[in-house]
Amino acid sequence: MLTAEPIFLTAEIREIEHLITLLPTPPRLMEKAGLAAAQIVRDQLHKNPNYHILVLAGPGNNGGDAFVVARHMKEWGNAVTVVFNGDLNRVPPDAKQAIQAWLDIGGEVLADIPDGDQNWDTVIDGLFGIGLDQSRGRPIEGKYREWVDTVNRMNAPIVSLDIPSGLGSDDGCIYGTAIRATTTVTFIGLKPGLFTNFGPECCGTIVLRDLNILLPSPPEPHVWLLNQNLAQSLLPPPRPVNSHKGSFGNVAILGGSTGMVGAALLAGRTALYLGAGRVYLGLLAESVPPVDFSQPELMLRHPSELFTLESLNCLIIGPGLGQSKEALSWLEHALNDEHVLVLDADALNLIAQHQHLAQRLSQRNASTILTPHPAEAARLLYTDTATVQNDRMNAAYQISQQFNCHIVLKGAGSICCFPEGKRFLNTSGNPGLSTAGTGDVLTGIIGALIAQDLNPRQALMLAVYLHGAAADHLLQQNQGPLGMVASEIINMARLLLNKWIYQKKKTLS
């Protein structure tokens, strides 16, 4: 597997910063960060001087970074206005030096954003960095809130330093209000809040500047980025010419109660289109047709027959399952089965309602994948959706630990988590996925990849990224997310998977 790009929690970034101070010759982090950000701003302005730049500087080290950016931009010939509302005598030592360096070149400090319709070419957001989070309980309010709201209404690019002000570094929550940046220049390492919850909405383009920090023993990360490079390192190999349907595995899907047969059909068709050799459906509806006439390749069976199939690679239970006594009985049967399970939708709701199912799930020897959305995750954790969303990283970890399973917590910046605690933050997907049936498509992709001999961990990560990437391609094709439907994603995911596998083959040959 390709080495994944690490993501660091706030505590881990603080540990890195502390270890830097212990180096024989510690680098001046603020100077390095400010210069790196200034160079990016200059490049965005095509290296031409005489631009009007507004800099918002906060009372901490993030504000110090902003003063360094301001100094460089002024030295390069731009008109720079710095706004600062803190107490100059109470700022951290490094920030105080940055402020003095700004004043030494003739820079001025204003107490408020100038009135009138200024045509700013760029706004630099250096109000609050990674310290503004849930644990410290500091929502943006008062004058700072006014500034954030004013800047968000401006028709100017906004460059945030480290993280958009008001966005939680670990959780992606908004504390009071938050900057909607065009570009976020983040320092030392990536942060979870950039990619999950409200992060994708607030950050714009994310640019990492690690500041060339080399530590002899850096802290071990627990979170990594799930991007296209990592996803494409997980691909199944090209198919050999001498192959047959038995070469690519068998997937069984149990669900489709009365009124919800479509969910099981979506999952089944997805598994077929994404490469499973055979796909069986066990439908619970009262009246089940002998064949799916629009997709006759699907093999319809009585639910009991799914447990007697030979060489079954994966059993999916949940799409359209319902919560009847029959559904409960078949779920109990599945949890006692030794096949790899993918549990979704009402399978998760039933587990949340019945303690004996939850206990059996946690005791399984075979691998299990759970695919909850935030409301289902809340039920599994006996809490509410807001609590899950306010700490998505921890919610995913708790479910994985509690049930000894692989999990994807769906939503903006879906989180894949594994029993040993490793988490991967997905970077694909868009609001077009916010429609019925897309979760069923995801479970079908997971099942298809397991059938093609990917292990459950690999299948989960590749499926999550591919599912979002298919939606991203449809977003471009449709000029927006409106009206995207789940069945469209199936064909696009198939196209991308083939493209990735066979482009990779050409590259290697």
UniProtKB/TrEMBL annotation:
InterPro entries, per the entry: Carbohydrate_kinase_pred_CS, CARKD, Nnr, Ribokinase-like, YjeF_N_dom, YjeF_N_dom_sf
E.C. number: 4.2.1.136, 5.1.99.6
Residues the record lists as binding (6S)-NADPHX: 61-65, 144, 162, 263, 320, 373, 440
Chain ranges of the YjeF N-terminal domain: 8-219
Domain of life: Bacteria
Cofactor(s), by name: Mg(2+); K(+)
Pfam families to which the protein is assigned, alphabetical: Carb_kinase (PF01256), YjeF_N (PF03853)
Keyword Iron listed: no
Binding site for AMP: 410-414, 439
Keyword Methyltransferase: no
Reaction catalysed by this enzyme: (6R)-NADPHX = (6S)-NADPHX; (6S)-NADPHX + ADP = AMP + phosphate + NADPH + H(+); (6S)-NADHX + ADP = AMP + phosphate + NADH + H(+); (6R)-NADHX = (6S)-NADHX
Family affiliation: Belongs to the NnrE/AIBP family. In the C-terminal section; belongs to the NnrD/CARKD family.
Summary of subunit composition and partner proteins: Homotetramer.
Protein name listed in UniProt: Bifunctional NAD(P)H-hydrate repair enzyme
Organism: Nitrosomonas supralitoralis
The gene coding this protein: nnrE
